[in-house]
């Protein structure tokens, strides 16, 4: 062993960690500090306030929105905003949704979790709207440093700490990792001071199961328009850039339920046959005679339907006694019309003596009863003058025509296509309904009524019809140029919705409504334009 | 050889060359072709609105396109006749386009025989679809193509030809449809074209009688009517291959007679056969020549109508000269009087013969002469223009033939200084037209404004609409005005016939002065006081005037004093007019600026009239006689109470309302309140107060009752009622009385005191404050009108 003296130095930059040495102490302090800091972080960002705790139990509406931030850009650019269906009051929504308020997306993603809960009592102006969401730990930590963010000011209500968002004219507060936002200061204060017994019990009891993009429940008050008919309604909305689906189940008030129950409507068959073609299609399959449905609807509308019939055309020329006879005959006829119908707008007859829509009304009547009540008239020999007021069939065409005294101007006509009896306003329209346009489609998961609109086709049909009258200055308050301009605008909007369909059904006191919109994707230019307006 | 004779022979031979400036004369060529028109059963028939567009169920006899091609080497024309009701504008445009290589538009003469049983479906115009059936553009194209085939066919068989023409008269084949002994165009005009061998290529016959003979029971069958029978008969009478053609004359108001007293199709066959026989007689006697052709063509701007939105703005006039024969082609069916006048016009221009060819190139409806404008005949109802349309036609045909621009009548200077005050006094003198012009020039803007804000607005809102039909069911989003104005005008026009004969001239001059169609101007005058756009109940359920007549000793020395306050819901300008007509009595009348009729008036014989109550135009009811015009006629035409009463009774039938009449009678001065309705009912007193409304025995609204109660309480106890007292009573009221409970209320526009025996009228009109101004006195004396 060498006797030379050795001098040892710790390596440059190295850690001294050995016990009894000064470097080791520092390391320990740092470690402990880190642990304490972590514990502090965990403690201060703990989730000690469930969202249910700040949502009042007496709100009249509750909604939840899933993946709001994830899909907000997509929604902001949805063609929905170009369709003209959204009221002007909501025109700023796409701008608002596309706005990051000056924060990076990762900050917003941490501040707003995947589900937002929206509730309130004012379902008309949304003045006390309350939005509750859960922040991530990082979000909660970031929020602690809100003082370094622009547009957020501290505000106090008694002992409650609030923050005021200057940019969106609203307030928010934080409890644990729960963030509560409202445009109403009072609503936030009420949420923060809510007694446990006044809050909702669970999210599920408020109808918020967290499944759909947007779902909720509304309890209607008597003074709201829908409150006269419904007690409450559950709604679900799935939003996407190219499709929107909305469904609602509304519980009728007892007095209305009694009237609907009188119909004894069976459950929907599940499938319904409806015309494949046409800008507008309305179909019904009730499982009970249409006459009964008509009577019920007439009662529900305070006899408005019957009055409309009496005031129509030749009937209002009759005396009251004659009208009664005519209505009785109509009721008898209605009794054999079967339990399903469809109405479609198949086009516009521009060349008619009076240009008019081509409306195809189809029924599936009780064949035996129909033929007994309305035996098909014998065909004329082709040379007899088609005068008089009785139904007649000309030649071999098999079309039964009902003269109204207005000659070839308007002459409702009926014909059979398979087991379906079709009626149109004019015999010429029979020829316009080609075999192809008579095709039927099967609507799956159908309810009692179905409606389908193809806005581009519908608008084009109405445009053609309107222009022929506009060219003569016959559209009230409009000239040819203004009608042209009006349709040019709505044609643009209509192109955004290739198809809209709706289904309506009734079962056990609940009216069910489903609406589906297919949307055309917005073009890049339209996206850019929709983003030009900043708040 | 005799030298002078040789010289003469040489001169004869060379003369044509020398006189013709060395030009050569081309030989006339001609060709004719007939092309069958076939239509499927189910095609609507045109021309009879009673069919309401219903389609044909069968073909009785064939329909044709017949074409005659004439070419004199300089001018080549195609004369076509089609067995259809009229030539739609779209058809002519298509033919002209397709014929681009064959002929230019100036030389295509496209005419319709006007059969009432030809195909429809060719009119795109919405109003014309009502008699033509649904529009079928495919049919237009098909017929246009067949017309071209026909033109090509005529060209293909063209050969050297000569032309002859002539006329004959008949008294048994046609008759005036509207007036026994009325004018009839008896001429049958014939053009015959022969080939070089003297064989007939074509015989065209011009005859003025409507081909509407097909019996009602067969109205849904295709038929060429009597022209079809004429073709058959003529082609049997002439050489094989000859094409018979029919050119309808000015047949408006002229129908076929039934010389053989046949029924149904036999009657049609008889007329065709007899016409062919007479035409053949003419054709056999005529001389033939290498005729020179000259065609005339002019696109003309049509006069404005009450329904310009649905009427074409331009049309085509054409004429064809074949030596001394002039054929005038009109885009309408003119009445027989117009055909006769055009013949005289042609004669004055030096033509030997003239044929009017109706329903050619386009269709703007019927044209009736001035005398038929208000006649209410079917022809008049299809005449969309003013009473001067025939004059317009003569002027344009004359200008076309002379090759000069048409001389438009000078437009009256309607720039005037509209008064800003609430009343006006004017004086009118001269004949009816001059008086109409003077008034209209003075109040042009008021007249246009009232037409727009009251008459048109009432039509837009559905408060004024034609009688019957589907008008009550007009969809609410549609404005019926463009379609409703013509039928409304047709309803209003016949009222002119129940008024003084000079009224039309006055209305016509007034319309010209304000640049309004006569129909629009007359509609304003005839319904302007009796429509109230919107809810008319509050106004027309209450009398418009509050009237009292003080009769006998209670009027003191004046014997009769009439006091009246006239209420009116609009803020129109009150006008006092002194009228000195060139014929009849001088009179004073009061009314409003837009109005020609009189609400209150008095003439120089003392006959005094006033409207007490107007009947509002009922929704969907027929347009009634304007009472204010009847009263004006009475002022101008009558000098006694009895004459005025008789005039009123004759003129007013089934019109409701109430008037006051006063004047010198056989047994002294007479004053009466007259209720109109089915007959007239009089109420008068021999002595005392005669009120416009007898509130004890007649029903009245509360406000009217209050006004008359006040009048009675103020005047009833007076032994003698003086003028000043009456003035004080009538002007008692308040500005804010909108319910018309006071004599002078918020709607009162004039207060009038009439002393008929003294020829004195005192008028106080609405002042700036809303209360009456000072009464001003006006007296009547011929020659002193200012």
Task: Describe what you observe in this structure.
The complex is a heterodimer of chains A (535) and B (786). By secondary structure, chain A is an alpha+beta fold. Chain A is built from 15 helices and 22 strands. Chain A has helices spanning 22-44, 68-76, 93-97, 105-111, 137-144, 185-192, 254-261, 290-300, 304-311, 320-334, 367-373, 427-432, 455-470, 480-495, 524-530; strands at 61-66, 115-120, 130-134, 152-157, 160-165, 170-175, 178-182, 214-219, 230-239, 243-252, 270-275, 280-285, 340-349, 356-363, 392-393, 400-401, 413-417, 420-424, 440-446, 449-453, 499-507, 510-518. With 786 residues, chain B is of the alpha+beta class. The longest helix of chain B is centred in the middle third of the chain and has 22 residues, at 264-285. In chain B, strand 23 and strand 24 (600-603) form a beta hairpin. Chain A binds chain B through residues 313, 351-353, 355, 380, 382-386, 394-395, 406-409, 428, 468-469, 472-476, and chain B through 41, 44, 51-55, 57-58, 126, 129-130, 133-137, 217, 219-221, 309-310, 460, 470, 473, 476-483.
């Amino acid at each position: 062993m060498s006797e030379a003296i050795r001098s040892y130095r710790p390596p440059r930059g190295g850690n001294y960690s050995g016990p009894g040495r000064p470097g080791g102490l520092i390391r320990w302090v740092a470690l402990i500090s880190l642990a304490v800091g972590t514990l502090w972080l965990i403690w201060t960002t703990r989730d000690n306030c469930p969202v249910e705790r700040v949502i009042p139990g007496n709100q009249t509406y509750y909604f939840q929105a899933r993946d709001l931030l994830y899909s907000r850009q997509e929604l902001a650019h949805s063609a929905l905003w170009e369709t003209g269906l959204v009221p002007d009051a909501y025109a700023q929504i796409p701008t608002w949704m596309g706005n990051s308020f000056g924060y990076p997306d990762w900050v917003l993603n941490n501040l707003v979790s995947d589900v937002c809960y929206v509730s309130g009592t004012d379902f008309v102006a949304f003045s006390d709207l309350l939005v509750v969401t859960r922040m991530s730990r990082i979000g909660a930590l970031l929020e602690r440093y809100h003082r370094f963010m622009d547009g957020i000011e501290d505000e106090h209500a008694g002992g409650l700490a609030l923050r005021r968002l200057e940019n969106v004219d609203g307030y928010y507060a934080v409890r644990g990792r729960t963030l509560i936002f409202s445009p109403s200061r009072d609503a936030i204060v009420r949420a923060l001071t809510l007694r446990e017994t006044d809050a909702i019990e669970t999210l599920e009891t408020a109808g918020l199961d967290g499944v759909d993009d947007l779902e909720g429940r509304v309890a209607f008050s008597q003074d709201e328009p829908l409150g006269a008919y419904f007690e409450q309604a559950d709604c679900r909305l799935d939003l996407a850039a190219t499709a929107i689906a909305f469904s609602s189940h509304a519980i009728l008030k007892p007095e209305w339920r009694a009237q609907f129950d009188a119909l004894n409507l069976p459950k929907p068959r599940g499938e319904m046959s409806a015309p494949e073609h046409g800008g507008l299609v309305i179909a019904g399959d009730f499982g009970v005679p249409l006459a009964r449905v008509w009577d019920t609807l007439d009662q529900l509308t305070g006899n408005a339907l019957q009055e409309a019939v009496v005031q129509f055309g030749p009937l209002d020329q009759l005396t009251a006694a004659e009208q009664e006879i005519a209505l009785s005959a109509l009721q008898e006829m209605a009794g054999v019309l079967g339990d399903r119908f469809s109405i479609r707008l198949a086009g516009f007859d521009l060349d008619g003596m009076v240009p008019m829509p081509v409306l195809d009304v189809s029924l599936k009547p009780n064949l035996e009863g129909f033929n007994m009540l309305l035996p098909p008239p014998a065909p004329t020999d082709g040379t007899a003058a088609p005068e008089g007021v009785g139904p007649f069939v000309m030649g071999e065409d098999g079309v039964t025509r009902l003269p109204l005294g207005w000659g070839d101007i308007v002459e409702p006509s009926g014909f059979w296509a398979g087991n379906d009896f079709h009626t149109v306003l004019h015999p010429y329209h029979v020829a316009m309904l080609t075999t192809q346009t008579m095709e039927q489609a099967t609507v799956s998961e159908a309810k009692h009524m179905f409606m389908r609109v193809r806005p581009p086709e519908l608008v084009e049909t109405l445009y053609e019809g309107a222009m022929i009258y506009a060219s003569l200055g016959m559209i009230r308050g409009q000239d040819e140029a203004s009608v042209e301009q009006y349709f040019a605008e709505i044609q643009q909007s209509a192109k955004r919705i290739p198809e809209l369909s709706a289904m309506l059904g009734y079962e056990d006191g609940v009216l069910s409504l489903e609406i589906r919109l297919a949307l055309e994707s917005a073009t890049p230019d339209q996206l850019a334009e929709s983003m030009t307006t900043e708040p | 050889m005799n030298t002078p004779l040789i010289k003469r022979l040489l001169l004869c031979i060379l003369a044509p060359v020398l006189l013709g400036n060395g030009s050569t004369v081309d030989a006339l060529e001609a060709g004719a072709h007939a092309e069958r028109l076939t239509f499927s059963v189910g095609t609507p028939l045109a021309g009879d609105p009673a069919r309401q567009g219903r389609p044909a169920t069968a073909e009785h006899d064939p329909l044709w396109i017949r074409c005659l091609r004439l070419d004199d080497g300089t001018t080549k024309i195609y004369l076509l006749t089609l067995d259809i009701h009229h030539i739609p504008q779209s058809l002519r445009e298509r033919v002209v386009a397709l014929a681009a290589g064959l002929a230019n538009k100036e030389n295509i003469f496209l005419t319709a025989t006007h059969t009432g049983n030809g195909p429809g479906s060719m009119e795109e115009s919405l109003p014309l679809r009502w008699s033509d059936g649904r529009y079928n553009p495919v049919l237009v194209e098909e017929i246009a193509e067949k017309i071209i085939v026909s033109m090509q066919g005529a060209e293909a068989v063209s050969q050297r030809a000569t032309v002859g023409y002539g006329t004959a008269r008949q008294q048994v084949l046609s008759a005036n449809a509207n007036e026994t002994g009325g004018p009839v165009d008896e001429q049958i005009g014939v053009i015959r074209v022969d080939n070089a061998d003297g064989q007939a290529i074509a015989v065209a016959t011009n005859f003025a009688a409507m081909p509407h003979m097909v019996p009602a029971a067969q109205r849904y069958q295709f038929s060429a009517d009597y022209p079809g029978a004429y073709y058959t008969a003529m082609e049997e009478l002439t050489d094989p291959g000859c094409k018979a053609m029919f050119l309808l004359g000015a047949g408006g108001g002229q129908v076929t007679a039934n010389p053989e007293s046949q029924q149904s199709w036999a009657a049609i066959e008889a007329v065709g056969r007899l016409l062919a026989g007479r035409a053949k007689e003419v054709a056999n006697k005529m001389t033939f020549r290498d005729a020179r052709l000259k065609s005339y063509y002019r696109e003309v701007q049509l006069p404005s109508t009450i329904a310009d939105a649905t009427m074409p703005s331009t049309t085509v006039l054409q004429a064809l000269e074949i030596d001394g024969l002039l054929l005038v082609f009109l885009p309408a069916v003119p009445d027989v009087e117009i055909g006769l006048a055009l013949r005289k016009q042609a004669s004055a221009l030096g033509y030997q013969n003239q044929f009017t060819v109706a329903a050619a190139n386009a269709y703007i409806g019927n044209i009736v002469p001035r005398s038929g404008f208000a006649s209410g005949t079917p022809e008049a109802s299809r005449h969309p223009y003013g009473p001067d349309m025939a004059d317009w036609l003569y002027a344009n045909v004359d200008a076309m033939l002379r090759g000069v621009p048409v001389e438009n009548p000078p437009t009256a200077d309607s720039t005037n200084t509209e008064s800003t005050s609430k009343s006006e006094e004017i004086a009118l003198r001269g004949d009816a037209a001059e008086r109409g012009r003077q008034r209209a020039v003075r109040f042009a803007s008021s007249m246009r404004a009232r037409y727009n804000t009251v008459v048109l607005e009432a039509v837009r809102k559905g408060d004024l609409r034609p009688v019957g039909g589907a008008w009550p069911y007009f969809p609410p989003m549609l404005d019926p005005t463009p379609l409703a104005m013509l039928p409304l005008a047709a309803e209003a026009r016949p009222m002119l016939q129940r008024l003084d004969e000079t009224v039309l001239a006055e209305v016509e001059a007034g319309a010209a002065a304000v640049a309004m169609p006569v129909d629009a101007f007359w509609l304003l005058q005839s319904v302007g006081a009796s429509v109230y756009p919107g809810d008319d109940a509050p106004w027309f359920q209450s009398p418009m005037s509050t009237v009292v007549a003080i009769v006998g000793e209670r009027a003191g020395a004046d014997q009769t004093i009439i006091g009246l306050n006239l209420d009116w819901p609009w803020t129109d300008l009150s006008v006092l007019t002194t009228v000195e007509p060139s014929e009849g009595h001088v009179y004073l009348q009061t009314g409003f600026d837009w109005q020609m009729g009189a609400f209150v008036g008095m003439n120089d014989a003392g006959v005094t009239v006033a409207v007490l109550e107007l009947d509002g135009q009922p929704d969907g009811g027929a347009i009634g006689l304007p009472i204010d015009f009847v009263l004006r006629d009475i002022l101008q035409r009558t000098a006694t109470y009895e004459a005025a009463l008789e005039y009123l009774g004759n003129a007013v039938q089934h019109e409701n309302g109430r008037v006051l009449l006063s004047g010198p009678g056989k047994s002294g001065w007479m004053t009466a309140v007259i209720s109109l309705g089915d007959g007239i009912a009089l109420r008068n007193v021999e002595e005392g107060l005669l009120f416009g409304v007898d509130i004890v025995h007649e029903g009245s609204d509360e406000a009217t009752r209050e006004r008359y109660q006040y009048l009675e309480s103020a005047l009833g106890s007076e032994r003698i009622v003086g003028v000043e007292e009456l003035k004080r009573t009538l002007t008692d009221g308040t500005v804010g009385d909108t319910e018309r409970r006071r004599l002078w209320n918020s709607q009162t526009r004039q207060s009038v005191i009439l002393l008929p025996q003294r020829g004195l009228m005192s008028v106080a009109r609405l002042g700036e404050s809303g209360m009456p101004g000072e009464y001003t006195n006006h007296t009547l004396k011929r020659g002193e009108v200012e």
